[in-house]
């Protein structure tokens, strides 16, 4: 099963190596890993997508928490989160195909961010599923290149807050 | 501060005496006592010593800001002293010279091993024998690399060590400089925590954190890598303050409800077993354990690391469990209805086949490391906390139960399958040697071991009575651990008898450290159970590889002569009748003493749970019964 683990770590050199090394040493599988600064310059956020059953993921969570520079570990269950991936994709697109590809992008709320003689570059964000579907839809035109950030996720805001809004 | 010298080759007793202050020091000290704060004069050759002293005193009277500025290496030494470090181990090298220059004047005893690995094991054993943090120093590159085996050994057995390594200058890092290695990269998986300090201002706090992390929670080794430019640049010093590590939270007191659930399970159980690991020793909780076992009337089995937590001469002791555990411990675990694991981690050498481990038992697991709980075996009642606190709380809630049926059953197993060997042969049996050592040392000696058959026999046939008296590499199984460990333990406990029960192959790995024992005049004893094989490997080849003894024997030197050549006492024993005298002589010897017992070559360790089998599928019980 896929689990999204969100980890707050000290923004120090070597922490990424420590986390990645722990995964390798304990034979846990990382599906994706996204790292970035937070609003607090001393902390970074790592969002790690892990494959494994509940027991494995519990171990992952505990072993992460054991690393001294890891401040907080949350294991999100899929329904309680907003999860997003960002992808840039270069799709083969001669001038006559452009309307088709543009329409496709529009359908997926994607943006055309660059355009060349034979290709267009599309930026799309969304759930993994959505991105996969978009890739499938682009396949008939020919895909030159894709690059993805890996999943980032945040817990949904709880209900009372929602009602207040 | 009384100054102490620690030049090599000086005995422990001599070292303890502080060097008397020089006359100039007395002059300056007296001036300060008389509250003289200004002195007028001119320097010259004859008064240089006085000026040297005045210079030091003068620095005390500078403005507050500059008082607190010190060289990095001085900060290291001061912080070590502040953390209570009295003894350190380690080896010199280019980039740690600034540190050693400051250590020259420090009130710290410094022990030089012959190899950094030996130094790491000595610091490890020092920590195991005392419960204090062991400190080891090594230079960059090869020095740091040589520490790794020692760090991994300490990591697996949860031993608090602070390792300080030198590193090349900050601006050279990553350039493949001379004696450069990515020390933090190499040691990351074998340390609880490691840091490279790139700014002298961070040095002091990082050191304090290192000691705190090493000794608290589940203890472990912490390494600090210090580039040479950091140790020579000046930095501010600060008085010790609270440690602020947002990612390091400790849970020492167990959850009250979990403890109550454990107590209820104990009170309701008909066939309980305490399964004790090294965590009880690390937490200094042997007394609390014994109180609990006595009050609730619980039989107690220990892992290799747990030996000594419970007194094996007490009737409730089931001795060691696991692969080479006693039959009665393994049967009791397989039959129990409640297994109370304390400070143990369900290692594969303990559990055998996981699926069939303790199949009838409800499991209570008390451990300070949440990651140990439900890692290998799903636990029914987890209690995260320090064994000392949790056991004390638990004891308050348990009630005495007779459990006569259960104890009768255990007694039956004990009577039927006691740990045995063939006592009637004329050949020299290793178990006999250990029994005699145990008899003569009375369970009061500190025993260190290497790894292999001799280690298992030392676990089985020596009756362990006290915590911190059995020093062995359990988790990592580091051959060669015994001799440096005995040295570290002897330095920690100068008044104790320290015996390294070793194997010939294990001893071969680190025997160079005998020179260290000679240099520091340590009365350690080494009893080599010499069968001319890598005994445990040979046993496995015999049992599982059709007696094909592929490369499992070595041509040994004459160990007694090696000992003599290095300045120790050496003896060779080939007959059973010589054993008692030899042990008497060994125990009386003031010099390091090596006794090479030529034991029966193909003796095996029994019983044995073959890897991947259940605990009750022991081999060798028929051999026991045939001896009855």
Characterize the structure shown:
The complex is a heterodimer of chains A (165) and B (628). Chain A is of the alpha+beta class. Chain A has 2 domains: 75 residues, Alpha-Beta Plaits; 72 residues, Alpha-Beta Plaits, CATH 3.30.70.1150. Chain A contains 5 helices and 9 strands. In chain A, the strands form 2 sheets. In chain A, strands 5, 6, 7, 8 and 9 form a 5-stranded antiparallel sheet that branches. Chain A has a 4-stranded antiparallel sheet with strand order 2-3-1-4, with helices on one face. In chain A, strand 2 and strand 3 form a beta hairpin. The longest helix of chain A is centred in the middle third of the chain and has 13 residues. Chain A is elongated and about 55 Å long. The relative contact order of chain A is 0.19. The model of chain A has no long low-confidence stretch (mean pLDDT 92). With 628 residues, chain B is an alpha/beta fold. Chain B folds into 4 domains: 39 residues, no CATH class; 169 residues, Rossmann fold, CATH 3.40.50; 161 residues, TPP-binding domain (Rossmann fold, 3-Layer(aba) Sandwich), CATH 3.40.50; 177 residues, Rossmann fold. Chain B is built from 27 helices and 20 strands. Chain B has a 6-stranded parallel sheet with strand order 3-2-4-5-7-6, with helices on both faces. Chain B has a 6-stranded parallel sheet with strand order 11-10-9-12-13-14, with helices on both faces. The radius of gyration of chain B is 27 Å and the shape is globular. At the A-B interface, helix 1, helix 2 and strand 4 of A face strand 6 of B.
């Amino acid at each position: 099963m896929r689990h999204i683990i969100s980890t707050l770590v000290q923004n120090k050199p070597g922490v990424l190596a420590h986390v990645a090394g722990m995964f390798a040493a304990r034979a846990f599988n990382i599906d994706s890993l996204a790292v970035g600064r937070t609003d607090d310059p001393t902390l970074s956020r790592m969002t790690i997508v892990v494959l494994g059953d509940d027991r494995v993921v519990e171990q992952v969570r505990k072993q992460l928490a054991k690393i001294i520079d890891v401040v907080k570990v949350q294991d999100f269950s899929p329904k309680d989160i907003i999860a997003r991936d960002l992808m840039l994709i270069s799709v083969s697109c001669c001038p006559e195909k452009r309307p088709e590809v543009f329409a496709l992008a529009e359908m997926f709320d994607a943006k055309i961010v660059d355009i060349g003689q034979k290709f267009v570059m599309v930026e799309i964000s969304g759930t993994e599923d959505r991105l996969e579907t978009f890739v499938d839809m682009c396949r008939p035109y020919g895909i030159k290149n894709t690059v993805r950030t890996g999943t980032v996720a945040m817990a949904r805001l709880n209900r009372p807050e929602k009602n207040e809004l | 501060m009384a100054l102490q010298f620690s030049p090599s080759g000086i005995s422990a007793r001599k070292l303890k005496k502080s060097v008397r202050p020089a006359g100039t020091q007395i002059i300056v000290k007296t001036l300060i006592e008389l509250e003289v704060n200004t002195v007028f004069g001119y320097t010259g050759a004859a008064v240089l010593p006085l000026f040297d002293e005045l210079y030091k005193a003068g620095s005390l009277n500078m403005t507050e800001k500059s008082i607190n500025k010190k060289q990095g290496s001085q900060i290291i030494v001061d912080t070590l002293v502040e953390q209570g470090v009295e003894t350190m181990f380690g080896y010199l090298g280019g980039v740690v010279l600034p540190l050693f220059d400051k250590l020259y004047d420090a009130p710290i005893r410094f022990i030089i091993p012959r190899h950094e690995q030996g130094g790491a094991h000595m610091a490890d054993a020092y920590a195991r024998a005392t419960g204090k943090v062991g400190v080891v120093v090594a230079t960059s590159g090869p020095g740091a690399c040589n520490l790794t085996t020692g760090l991994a050994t300490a990591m697996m057995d949860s031993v608090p060590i602070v390792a300080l390594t030198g590193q090349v200058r900050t601006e050279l890092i990553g350039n493949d400089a001379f004696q450069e290695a990515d020390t933090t990269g190499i040691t990351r998986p074998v340390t609880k925590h490691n840091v490279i300090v790139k700014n002298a201002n961070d040095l002091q706090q990082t050191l304090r954190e290192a000691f705190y992390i090493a000794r608290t929670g589940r203890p472990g080794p912490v390494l600090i890598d210090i580039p040479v430019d950091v140790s020579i640049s000046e930095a501010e010093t600060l008085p010790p303050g609270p440690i602020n590590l947002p990612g390091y939270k400790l849970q020492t007191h167990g959850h009250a409800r979990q403890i109550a659930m454990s107590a209820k399970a104990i009170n309701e159980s008909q066939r309980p077993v305490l399964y004790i690991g090294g965590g009880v020793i690390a937490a200094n909780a042997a007394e609390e354990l014994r109180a609990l076992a006595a009050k609730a009337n619980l039989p107690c089995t220990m892992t290799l690391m747990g030996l000594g937590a419970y007194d094996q001469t007490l009737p409730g002791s089931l001795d060691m469990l696991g692969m080479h555990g006693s039959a009665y411990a393994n049967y009791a675990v397989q039959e129990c209805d409640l297994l109370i694991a304390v400070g143990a981690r369900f290692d594969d050498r303990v559990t055998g086949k996981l699926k069939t481990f303790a199949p009838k038992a409800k499991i209570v697991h008390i451990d300070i490391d949440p990651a140990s709980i439900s890692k290998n075996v799903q636990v029914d009642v987890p209690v995260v906390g320090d064994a000392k606190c949790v056991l004390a709380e638990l004891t308050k809630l348990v009630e005495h139960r007779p459990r006569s049926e259960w104890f009768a059953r255990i007694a039956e197993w004990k009577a039927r399958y006691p740990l045995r060997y063939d006592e009637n042969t004329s050949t020299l049996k290793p178990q006999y040697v250990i029994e005699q050592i145990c008899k003569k040392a009375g369970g009061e000696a500190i025993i260190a071991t290497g790894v292999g058959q001799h280690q298992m026999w030392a676990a089985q046939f020596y009756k362990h009575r006290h915590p911190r008296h059995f020093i062995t590499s359990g988790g990592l199984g580091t051959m060669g651990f015994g001799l440096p460990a005995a040295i570290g333990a002897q330095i920690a406990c100068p008044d104790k008898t320290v015996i390294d029960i070793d194997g010939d192959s294990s001893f071969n790995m680190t025997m160079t450290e005998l020179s260290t024992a000679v240099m520091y005049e340590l009365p350690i004893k080494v009893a080599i159970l010499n069968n001319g094989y890598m005994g445990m490997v040979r046993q496995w080849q015999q049992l599982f590889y059709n007696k094909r003894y592929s490369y499992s024997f070595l041509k040994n030197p004459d160990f007694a002569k090696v000992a003599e050549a290095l300045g120790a006492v050496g003896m060779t024993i080939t007959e059973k009748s010589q054993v008692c005298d030899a042990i008497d002589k060994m125990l009386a010897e003031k010099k390091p003493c090596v006794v090479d017992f030529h034991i029966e070559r193909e003796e095996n360790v029994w019983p044995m749970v073959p890897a991947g089998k259940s605990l009750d599928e022991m081999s060798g019980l028929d051999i026991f019964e045939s001896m009855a």
